[in-house]
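CHAIN AND CONFORMATION:
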Amino acid sequence: MIQQVDREILDHMIDPKNYGSMEDPDAIGIGENPQNGEKVIVYLRVDDAGEAPRIASIRFQAIGCMTTVVAGSIITEEARELAFPQAEEMISVALGMLENVPPEEAACSEMVALALQAAMDTWHARRENPEIPALVYKIENTCVTKEETAKENG
């Protein structure tokens, strides 16, 4: 089981899924780490023909570390084709799981999850006002450890 998980993570590192921009997306959301400037942008195409809007297509870009790219690849793969309520539940579960992870390790995944939530919230907001810019959600965790912060502050 561990070897299978390692292979999947390695696959996301070598060949990130859904990486890159999207022409004419229906919505964009940004997750940001205000402490170091890292960002994740999530692009969505939305199918709203059914009961709930559905993620028809999803892409992401990251200005961050490899962990951010891997998290973006995994989360966008899981979110593709989900209805918004299902995607929001996935985000909630992911953020809940991160509560048990050291903050510096949780920051990258939190940033991706918040970017996805921001993209869905942007889509909803643009239904009422098409001029709404992409929403930006800032993470609570940081990838800087307490020890590193103490060293920087002397």
About this structure: The chain has five helices and four strands. Helices lie at 2-14, 66-79, 84-98, 103-128, 146-152. Residues 2 and 125 are 42 Å apart (CA to CA). The chain has a mean pLDDT of 89.
